[in-house]
Specification:
single chain; alpha/beta; Arc Repressor Mutant, subunit A; Rossmann fold; 2 domains; seven-stranded mixed sheet; two-stranded antiparallel sheet
Length: 351
């Protein structure tokens, strides 16, 4: 096969950039863990000596880190002053944990994918899976930190209002189940917004349940936010709203989960399914977001599903048509797209 030199050089350039980004992921984690981003954003233009002094780190390491981050375009460098700084946009993405688009969390997810690669390689050969609980702990923390900004931006302001009659029920006092709640970010947001309602978070991963309780207590909502260990097919109670946030595709038996949700809904109840946004055709997802989601699906989500009974393996990029098929098979006859963002698809389901 003849080699097209131009295309070869383009691919080499792309791979060089990707390898630099991959290794640079460790530097993002360092900047986050050591407070380098937050300090630089708060202090303004700083030399490596000044930044090291402010963060209790060693200048020689900080000097190299700063140069690498400036080369990546994550921070800026003024050669005349010998100082580094962050623009408002850089600070929003890398230093503002309560902002609408905080990215270091997803770098923790990426780190888990790399650290757990040997487990996934074994699953490739055996056809088995890798359970959520079998991953490096940075996955659990990173998932919460990555999704929380999007939930904080959209959940109360647009997703819940897009569901028929749900906001009014929550304002008056409703009972809500959050299944696959992880560290409880979504429950905490809803509990703050709707103090008359009661919220129940369920997750099969006990360490996540314990952490969710801690965070709910810190947020001052533990009186109305309760957490217990349970799966999507055996959680107890009856609810006006059942919510699944970015977890249906991770389940081995999502149809079985759908059937169980149907039995847990009160009269007139609603099931809200939040899933990663995806087109229905594979090629529709050949874009930066699809690339990220397919990578996460290969290393985390599909292995999680295949580790469980049934092992349907929906994948992160299942798409609306496939998701509707699953929900319909679980006994829901009314399913509609309530709203969508570039990152999420929100479905409303009723029996």
């Amino acid at each position: 096969m003849a080699i097209n030199e131009t295309k070869l050089q383009e691919l080499v350039g792309k791979m060089l950039g990707d390898v630099g980004a991959a290794i640079g992921g460790a530097l993002v984690l360092l900047g986050d863990e050591l407070g380098l981003y937050k300090t630089l954003a708060a202090q303004g233009p700083s030399t490596p000596v000044e930044l090291a002094a402010q963060t209790g780190t060693v200048e020689r390491y900080v000097r190299e880190w700063c140069a690498a981050q400036a080369a990546a375009g994550y921070i800026n460098y003024d050669p005349a002053m010998g100082k580094y700084s962050m623009s408002a946009e850089q600070a929003l993405l890398l230093a503002d944990e309560n902002g609408p688009a905080f990215f270091p969390g997803v770098y923790e997810v990426a780190a888990a994918a790399v650290r757990d690669e040997p487990k996934v390689a074994r699953a490739f050969r055996s056809g088995g899976g890798v359970g959520w609980h079998e991953h490096d702990a940075c996955l659990f923390r990173g998932t919460e930190r990555f999704f929380r900004p999007s939930y904080a931006t959209h959940l109360v302001s647009s997703w819940i209002p897009a569901l028929e009659g749900v906001r009014e029920k929550l304002e008056q006092g409703a009972k809500v189940a959050d299944v696959g709640c992880g560290h409880g970010a979504s429950i905490i947001l809803m509990a703050k917004a709707y103090p008359k309602s009661r919220f129940f978070g369920f997750d099969y991963h006990e360490p996540s349940i314990l952490r969710a309780r801690e965070l709910a207590q810190e947020a001052g909502v533990l009186d109305r936010a309760h957490f217990a260990q349970a799966t999507a097919k055996d959680f107890p109670g009856t609810y006006d709203l059942v919510a699944f946030f970015d977890c249906l595709h991770d389940m081995g038996d999502p149809i079985g989960a759908a059937r169980h949700v149907r039995t847990r809904l009160a009269e007139g109840g609603t099931w809200m399914i939040v899933e990663p946004f995806a087109g229905d055709r594979t090629e529709d997802n050949f874009n930066p977001i699809g690339r990220l989601y397919y990578a996460a699906s290969t290393t985390i989500c599909v292995p999680a599903s295949l580790s469980q009974e049934v092992g349907l393996g929906l994948g992160t990029q299942a798409g609306e048509v496939r998701l509707r098929e699953v929900v319909n098979a679980g006994g829901f006859t009314r399913v509609r797209r309530a709203v969508a963002t570039p990152f999420n698809l929100v479905l409303e389901a009723r029996p």
